[in-house]
Design brief:
The protein has about 425 residues and is of the alpha+beta class. The chain has 2 domains: about 140 residues, no CATH class; about 280 residues, Distorted Sandwich (Glucose Permease (Domain IIA)), CATH 2.70.70.10. The chain has 5 helices and 25 strands. Strands 12, 13, 14, 15, 16, 17, 20, 21, 22, 23, 24 and 25 form a 12-stranded antiparallel beta sheet that branches. The chain has a 5-stranded mixed beta sheet with strand order 1-8-7-4-5, with helices on one face. A hairpin with a 2-residue loop joins strand 7 and strand 8. The chain is globular.
Length: about 425
């Protein structure tokens, strides 16, 4: 989901490398510097094959201003370590001792935060460093500085002329009834090795539910499904942005597409980046082209664009409810459970400040008759799953505002520039 892209990168690195360990990685603060010259280039320094226990890994990062980019280098790490980079200034991951990325694909924060996770087996540590982006930082709108006491929700409701989206369906489905012979509740597979033995996942993670090994609540409806599950457009709309989750084939997660769709009532040109202010976005995260093999043949990476009715998906294209967008994206399956797919849906409303926006329970935007139908399916699924898993606490239906949603909406404020936005969750839309 776009508001959390960079923070989730960092957190995914922690959980992915540590596997089933409950040990938290250590965190170090490292030195950083801003490179003033426009001609300097960081030279790779290869680590020694010997690694003394007294050696401390370090991170050196610099800003090169023309073209604007960040260049980073890791030093003094064990030669058998895996290295993964993330930053709040890009949606990309990096791997290996050297990493660079261009600035400008998303708003540039005043403080660019860079994280490097170094893992040796199941032992991981995170090094972090900050860079002052100076004049490269994206300006903060005067309106957000002049009226700090105005809530995000009040600002959006008074300023937006774009009609909220109306969903005719969810990106996958149906979700019931449960068939004991096939082990499926609709498209959701009850996989014992994945969901009962592991106990860190469920076929459906509710909006506002707790994510495994992560502190923030889930800002999407997330589905873990067979990788050949078809993903559909949930509404009529315009493709605002298409983006790639890049993992370079080094891990089984990611290496798939995210698609942002805005309502037809927003006739502004698409941005192909951070969404325009005062609009609604329905985001379908983790999609793989119909021309890619399923299940994924890891570590191969299939970068083919999603195909809709034989035409490659592109920014500005109009999509219709029910059109097939592709297959479910990639889910790591190192235990070989056979369940290797996932996809997510979120509904968001932007403000005139790119650091602040609002998220909503997607089920509340379904057309009235369709909402009742899908809520019944999800309710039946949850009852069947709890019975199958012999876990009556898998879902707390009494706390849900809609079947599949613990909250109606959330406000996100990242004006502090930290790894995570400050979250305020609400049980009602108003």
């Amino acid at each position: 989901m776009w508001r959390y892209t960079n923070a989730l990168l960092i957190l995914a690195l922690v959980s992915g490398c540590a596997g089933g360990s409950d040990v938290r990685p250590s965190v170090q603060t490292t030195e950083s510097k801003v490179m003033e010259t426009t001609e300097s280039v960081v030279t790779s320094v290869h680590p020694s094959t010997e690694h003394s226990p007294n050696d401390q890994p370090t991170v050196l990062c610099e800003i090169k201003e023309q073209p604007a980019k960040v260049i980073c280098e890791a030093r003094d790490y064990a030669s058998d370590s895996s290295l993964q980079w993330a930053s709040n200034a890009t949606t990309r991951w990096g791997n290996g001792p050297n990493w660079d990325f261009d600035l400008g694909e998303m708003p540039v924060p005043a403080t660019i935060q860079i994280s490097l996770e170094i893992c040796a087996g199941s032992n991981c540590e995170i090094l972090r460093t900050d860079l002052d982006s100076g004049q490269l930082a994206t300006p903060i709108p005067e309106s957000s500085q002049a009226q700090p006491t105005t809530s995000v929700q009040e600002t959006v409701l008074s300023a937006s002329d774009v009609a909220p989206p109306v969903l005719g369906r969810l990106p996958i489905g149906p979700f019931a009834p449960y068939d004991s012979e096939s082990g499926h509740s609709g498209v959701l597979e009850f996989n014992w090795a994945r969901f009962v033995r592991d106990k860190t996942m469920q076929p459906l993670i509710a909006y506002g539910g707790q994510l495994p090994k992560r502190e923030p609540l889930n800002s999407t409806l997330e589905f873990h499904v067979p990788s050949d599950t078809l993903v559909y457009a949930p509404m009529n709309g315009i493709v605002e942005t298409i983006y790639w989750h890049d993992n370079e084939g080094l891990h089984q997660d990611w290496d798939d597409w995210g698609i942002m769709i805005k309502p037809l009532s927003d006739n502004r040109p698409p941005t192909d980046g951070a969404p325009a202010p005062f609009t609604w976005i329905v985001e379908i995260d983790h999609v793989v082209s119909l021309n890619c093999p399923r299940p994924r043949v890891w570590p191969d990476v299939c970068r083919l664009l999603p195909i809709i009715d034989g035409v490659e998906l592109e920014v500005g294209m109009t999509v219709r409810e029910g059109q097939v967008l592709g297959y479910a994206g990639n889910l790591s399956d190192y235990e070989n459970t056979g369940l290797k797919g996932r996809t997510e849906i979120s509904v968001q409303q932007t403000t005139d400040d790119w650091r602040m926006n609002n998220g909503y329970c997607p089920l509340l935007f379904l057309a009235t008759g369709k909402r009742l139908e899908i809520e019944d399916e999800i309710r039946d699924y949850m009852a069947a799953y709890e019975n199958w898993a012999d876990d009556s606490d898998a879902y707390n239906e009494d706390e849900m505002v809609s079947s599949g949603c613990y909250y109606a909406r959330a406000e996100y404020d990242n004006s502090s520039g930290g790894e995570w936005a400050e979250e305020t969750w609400y049980k009602a839309l108003e």
